[in-house]
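Justification of resources, computational component.

The compute hours requested in this renewal are based largely on the per-chain cost of generating structure records like the one below. Each record pairs the submitted sequence with a full structure-token output. That output is archived, and it is also reused by downstream analysis tasks.
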Amino acid sequence: MPVTVERDGPVTTVILHEPAVRNAVDRATAEALADAFRAFDADDDASVAVLWGAGGTFCAGANLKAVAEGEGNRVAPDGDGPMGPSRMLLSKPVIAAISGHAVAGGLELALWCDLRVVEEDAVMGVFCRRWGVPLIDGGTVRLPRIVGLGRALDLILTGRPVSAKEALAIGLATLVVPAGESRTAAEALARELARFPQLCMRHDRLSAYEQHDLPLEEALANELRHGLVALEHEALAGAARFAGGAGRHGAAVGGAGPADAGGGADGAAASGASDAGGGAHGAAASGAADASGGAPAGGGPAREDAS
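The structure output for this chain reads:
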């Protein structure tokens, strides 16, 4: 099966399982991905999802071999995106666990996720630039929102490889972890998120996404609308737990309690995560070209400046 799903309590891990093509996504895989995330979003017992690619590669984009053979991904303006879930706004967070390459449509899947846990030797980039394949799974929308327009245009126009170190510096990566540990670290972070009061976290998340489409006054009113739901259902209980001594000094609270008085999760909960200066192997892995257009032969190291 091109996509498998594993559950561990409140954490759902969706796995791209086509290592022979570096997890490049054809139409069937895209449909399976979309179905998996629809099922996750509808499952009341599932709180956070992780998207991971088996075999050492997150996702090398669309399967261009299938496209060349006339079996390309769905490109209709309505419904699911070419890569599957890229047009969905789920009600719950998704964390990308990135190893190897997350390029072209694979980068777009990573951008669709809320957070990105990146292995220190991973490479990201708009590698589809060299094949004339456009970004049509949200790349031109989400990348500028995450890293800013100037940096996004650099990556979109040049198609150059981006190391994990640079990705962290420009805000593209949330955490950088040692090679081979992205899934473990992402699932650990997912469990931390799952321990928070879920209604409040989900409404804050949706407000953050929805504000892009609204003028400031309307965005603030929308934030309050979301917040009132959480105030009615969770905030009083959380305040009572805090008054009783739970969660002081940043200590995590078991069950549904917040991590601290501010309710903020510490991203360093994922073991092995680097800080903002965390190192990464800047050079793109050679020989990574695949059906979707991997790294160019002889690709040099990624620039480490923020531009």
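The longest strand covers residues 3-8. The first helix runs from residue 27 to 42.
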